[in-house]
Amino acid sequence: MQMIDIEQIPAGIIPPPIRVGGATISEEAIAGEMQYHPADSAGTAQLKAARALVVRELLRQRAAELGLDVTGEDETDLAIATLLDRELNIPEPSDDDCRRFHAAVPTRFSEPGRVRVRHVLLAAAPDDAEARDARYRLGQKLIEAIKSSPERFTEFAQRHSACPSRDEGGALGWLAPGQTVAELDRALQHLPKGLHERPLASRFGWHVVVIDERREGHAVPFERVAERVRHTLREQATRRALRHYLLALEARMGVDGIALDDESDSSLMQ
Known about the structure:
By secondary structure, this protein is α+β, with helices and mostly antiparallel strands. Helices cover about 45% and strands about 15% of the residues. The chain has helices at about 25-35, 40-65, 75-85, 95-105, 130-150, 155-160, 180-190, 220-255, 265-270, and strands spanning about 20, 25, 115-125, 170-175, 195, 200, 205-215, 255. The strands form 2 sheets. Strands 3, 4, 5, 6 and 7 form a 5-stranded antiparallel β-sheet that branches. Helix 4 (about 95-105) packs across helix 8. The longest helix is centred in the C-terminal third of the chain and has 32 residues, at about 220-255. Its EC number is 5.2.1.8.
């Protein structure tokens, strides 16, 4: 039975206790664990925390069965590590496995495209319509001035930009996907070289943008990423083995009040 989101529990309804074998996971323990499981709601964080504690208790009980020391937190951590070393059978990926995986998902191991960017950030809060309108019009004026006098970009960055890059004339350097705010990042992946013809919006305001250079992404030969490929396959195999092991412990020892899911191994992998 899955744990109920505490934000949705009707008044007077008490969620079922969570038990692992003969042990009970207390509400206080779950509340204390929640800080390690950030989520978009308190209920989701609670559920993740509860599952993490169930996983730990399953492993603690199995370690105790084997005579390992679980008398304290540090001892339990060491016992769980020893237990998993003993009982998880993780096959080592072969060279052929690695080469097949690399060939099947070449983009996963590619060098991403990069752009060398300068910008002027004209700051305005997302909910300040008046300020955003004024900054957009300023951005248009700056773009028109830069078109006729490109050398003034540095001056405008130093005078108007709210980004620390103003001290570098607006230069952000080489950016790969994911290295700047998401809405600007998406636009940068598709812009041609040169001054963009209109300001670009982000949560911070408007950006006057120049793409100075673009390098397209490209595939990387297997030999250069062989260890990354091997590590990826080893991690996938570890996750599968750990998931099956936990589900087997859950079935044998008994867990009430919650069910493990496909991500219950995540806290251990991290």
